[in-house]
Amino acid sequence: MPLYKTINYNSSTQILVWKITESLEELLGKVLLKEKTQLRLNKMKSEIHQRAFLSVRMLLQLSGYTDFDLHYDEFGKPYFLDGKHVSITHSNYFSAIIISDETVGIDIELQREKIIRIADKFVNDKELNRLKSFDSEDYIRKLTVKWGAKEAIFKIRNEKGISFKDHIQVNTFELDDEKTIAILDFENIKQQFSIYFEEFDNFTLVYAFEN
């Protein structure tokens, strides 16, 4: 079943995860798109991206919304007109959305060795040396949580100039914790975020709340 997982974090926050198994034609037959969205879809060169894009609209429909309810601000951040906060993510054959009364961000990532090669771009040297003490599998998994946390925070703040490496620090955590704290220190603003994460099918799902 394409609806892979539903997480009811609390009474006002829900996360829905979709496993993309349908063809592009199947998805097109199940969603209604406004003209602007259809034009955006038509410009996508990758069918994988098109299917992921449409699966997000399927998740919206399951949440009681449609593509006509989804808008984007000048920075590309999605929003609803009813005051609910929404964040969107997709990776490979999974997509997810989070809808909440609170300010939220979400990210999903496939766990892969490639992240080791770019780790120094988003984790400071001290933390990187500490993480390297773990075996290779846990190293990849922890790096993926950190990347996802920083992506989720960036989706919340969405401000030009934020550096994952220099401005967002994720506290130490164990994989079994499934939660941690992160700090954004940027332009004289120090903001704390609660981070939650879980793993399935070699993917890592991370979502963040402003504290």
The secondary structure category is alpha+beta
| Largest β-sheet summary | 5 strands, antiparallel
Shape: globular
Compute the number of strand runs.
11
Q: Could you tell me how far the N terminus lies from the C terminus, measured between alpha carbons in angstroms?
A: 35 Å
The helical percent reads 25-40%
Low-confidence residue ranges: none
Give the radius of gyration: 17 Å
Q: What structural keywords apply?
A:
211 residues, alpha+beta, five-stranded antiparallel beta sheet, four-stranded antiparallel beta sheet, 11 strands, 32% helix, 34% strand, globular
Characterize the structure shown.
- The chain is of the alpha+beta class.
- Helix content is 32%, strand content 34%.
- It contains 7 helices and 11 strands.
- The protein has helices at 24-28, 35-42, 47-62, 114-118, 125-131, 136-157, 164-167; strands spanning 3-10, 13-19, 71-72, 78-79, 85-91, 94-100, 104-110, 168-170, 179-186, 189-200, 203-210.
- The strands form 3 sheets. It has a 5-stranded antiparallel β-sheet with strand order 7-11-10-9-8. Strands 1-2-6-5 form a 4-stranded antiparallel β-sheet, sandwiched between helices.
- Strand 10 and strand 11 (203-210) form a beta hairpin.
- The model has no long low-confidence stretch (mean pLDDT 95).
